[in-house]
Write a structure and sequence with these properties.
Layout (H helix, E strand, L loop, with lengths): L2 H14 L4 E6 L12 E6 L6 E7 L2 E7 L5 E7 L8 E8 L2 E7 L6 E7 L4 E7 L6 E9 L2 E8 L4 E7 L5 E7 L1 H6 L7 H5 E2 L6 E2 L2 E3 L7 H4 L3 E6 L2 E6 L5 E8 L4 E8 L10 E7 L2 E7 L3 E8 L5 E8 L11 E3 L10 E3 L2 H9 L2 E8 L4 E8 L10 E5 L2 E6 L2 E2 L4 H8 L5 E8 L14 H9 L8 E5 L2 E8 L4 E8 L2
Parallel strand pairs: 16-17
Antiparallel strand pairs: 1-35, 2-3, 3-4, 4-5, 6-7, 7-8, 8-9, 10-11, 11-12, 12-13, 14-15, 17-18, 18-19, 19-20, 21-22, 22-23, 23-24, 25-26, 25-32, 27-28, 28-32, 29-30, 30-31, 33-34, 34-35
């Protein structure tokens, strides 16, 4: 079955029956203006099953709560937090209360807004935190608490800030000195390892990745990434071309354990590009230069190698499913073209940031391998911009970094990349055949002709929700998709 026939068949299937509607929210009688929604935030409390949605227009936020049977149990309207706090980084929640935590663009000032559904009121507050000698890194939400991590400048000392529902904030310094000694890293400096660029153009960032969804190279080629796991999260740091530094933050204290995973050597370390990606218990590492590429899949805990692929410029790429593709606005004004030789593929990704995006499907793994050049572009729900080299998703001036599924969906189909795609079984043996459609392909088929407003995706349990707002009906609808 070829790709064209598959697309036609898929479209016929969608036309023959309606995609399952998960939830419809009518704002008729609630929303008095006729304008469109900017974006929607969705939060599900895993313990109570309560679903909270916050729908934003320029000066007003509409909040809704639903029980585990999707019956509406509360609704309120708010004027929202001050506009200088443009990025929602997390939430603290319990019962009928949700506190959204936000920061400013520089990451040195924080505020929150409490949605008290029980008493039908909201409450804003700004936090007085001393961040003068620190840089914001990332946030993490678990069990109704929002944790924020910063790093003291030019040190290996982290600061963990804990934001709770009652509006209180506490902090705890965490030094990695013992971890450095255990790994025999005498010259290890965490700040320098996370820092990207140089001089006046340097910046600090760890980019959240939702690895339970398909991702493009726009996301996968970030130097520093964060991946959630069952009991906390990982940071992968790939500034050093000789190893991947993995920081494993485990609950309850979230004090990181450092693991150093060596990379393949294919030439002068100064001439290579390297990166990594985590999917479940798999660590994928890529090392490439203009003449060679090495791709290895390892057990994350034991570092045992499952399989390894090497490529030189004179060889055929035997582990790809489809052509070498080169696309994006930096290449022929957005057109896509096919490259014939491995030498061109290696040369292109040697001048870009390289990476691998790995997604576990029903039958094994699907990988996107290649490189990407920084560029602006349009995402599916709003815009994809650059913030210190980071791909960010935004709509209506509010950055939605607390939902990494937004970044995966927003970048999908808009990357400026040179890439191949590959299918592997669970032991990372290459599988021949056509590339199947994924959940984002199905969403695009469903919504291809829609006027998209406040459209976004959310990963809830083991399925994906896609939402869209119909301005003329004042109706927001969430559609349910299997994540396969």
């Amino acid at each position: 079955m070829n790709k064209i026939f598959s697309a036609v068949l898929c479209m016929l299937c969608f036309s023959s029956f309606a995609q399952e509607k998960y939830l419809e929210i009518s704002l008729d009688g609630v929303k008095t203006t006729s304008g469109f929604m900017n974006n929607v935030h969705l939060i599900k409390n895993d313990e109570s099953g309560v679903l909270s949605l916050f729908m934003e227009e320029p000066k007003t936020t509409y909040g809704f709560q639903y029980d585990e049977d999707l019956k509406q149990i509360a609704q309120l309207t708010s004027k929202g937090v001050k506009r200088k706090y443009k990025e929602i980084i997390g939430q603290a929640s319990a019962g009928g209360k949700v506190r959204l935590i936000q920061k400013n663009t520089r990451g040195n000032k924080f505020a929150s807004i409490l949605y008290d559904f029980d008493n039908e009121k909201t409450e804003e507050m700004e936090y007085d935190l001393d961040m003068s000698d620190q840089k914001y890194l990332q946030s993490y939400n678990r069990d109704g608490i929002c944790y924020v991590f910063s790093i003291f400048k030019n040190t290996s000392i982290l600061n963990k800030w804990t934001f709770t529902l009652d509006g209180k904030v506490t902090s705890e310094e965490m030094t990695l000195e013992d971890e450095m000694k255990r790994n025999k890293l005498r010259t290890f400096n965490l700040y320098k390892l996370i820092e990207e660029g140089g001089g006046m153009d340097s910046f600090i960032n760890v980019s959240k990745v939702e690895n339970k969804l398909p991702n493009t190279l726009d996301v996968a080629t970030e130097q520093n990434k964060m991946f959630a796991h069952e009991n906390g999260f990982y940071w992968t740091l790939d500034e050093n071309h000789q190893y991947t530094a993995i920081l494993d933050f485990q609950l309850p204290d979230l004090l990181p354990k450092v693991t150093i995973v060596r990379k393949a050597v294919i030439g002068d370390a100064n001439s290579v590009k390297t990166n990594s990606f985590i999917s479940g218990n798999i660590l994928a590492q890529i090392v490439s230069n203009r003449k060679n590429m090495n791709l290895v899949f390892k057990d994350l805990e034991t570092q045992e190698v499952f399989n390894e692929y090497s490529l030189s410029k004179d060889e055929e790429i035997t582990f790809k499913n489809g052509p070498i593709l080169q696309e994006g606005s930096v290449y022929n004004f957005g057109s896509t073209r096919k490259l014939e030789k491995a030498s061109k593929f290696l040369r292109k990704i040697a001048s870009d940031k390289n990476g691998i995006a790995l997604f576990k499907s029903n039958n094994g793994y699907r990988a996107i391998i290649g490189g990407v050049r920084s560029q602006g572009g349009g995402g599916g729900f709003g815009m994809m911009g650059a913030m210190g080299g980071i791909a960010i998703a935004s709509a209506g001036g509010v950055v939605m970094s607390f939902n990494p599924a937004s970044l995966a969906y927003g970048s999908y189909g808009s990357t400026g990349s040179t890439r191949i795609e590959s299918l592997f079984d669970i032991e990372f043996q290459h599988i021949e055949g056509e590339l199947p459609f994924n959940v984002f392909d199905e969403i695009e088929i469903l919504s291809e002709d829609w006027l998209k407003r406040a459209d976004d995706v959310y990963l809830v349990e083991d399925f994906v929700l896609f939402g869209n707002y119909e301005t003329n009906k004042k109706l927001y609808t969430l559609y349910k998709f299997e994540n396969k």
